[in-house]
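Supplementary Methods, section 5.1.

A reviewer requested that the exact input to the structure prediction be made available. We therefore reproduce it here, unchanged from the version used in the analyses.
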Amino acid sequence: MGLRKKSTAHFSSVWLVSDARVLASAKLASSRSARRRGLIGVVDIDEPLVLQPCRWIHTFGVVHTLDVAYLDAQGVVLHIKRISPWRVDAPVWSAVTVIEATNGSMERWNLHVGDIVEVRHVQ
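The structure derived from this sequence is encoded token-by-token as follows.
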């Protein structure tokens, strides 16, 4: 994932699934430090990043425009937004999960507000 090596201990592999369709393989930030670090400084975003628990993000230090989806506890997409580098987004208070992906991902996945996304752990 880009410029610096990230410890695999803080990221686990997951699948993003919606309506029986696999949207993408992704990385789940499974520690507080991994969630804080997120995609900061990453040059090549190979996979989306899932942040749990999370209600808001910033893109300080992120070099790409991101597509971001906010999900509630049931996986319902509450809000989708495209966020440029060096921005702070407003919190989505009912969100518990945030998916950060490359620009255009939500359109490619045909993902909309109201859709349900399941984060499945890879066995």
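The beta strands are 11-18, 21-29, 49-51, 66-71, 77-83, 97-102, 118-121. These observations are discussed further in the main text.
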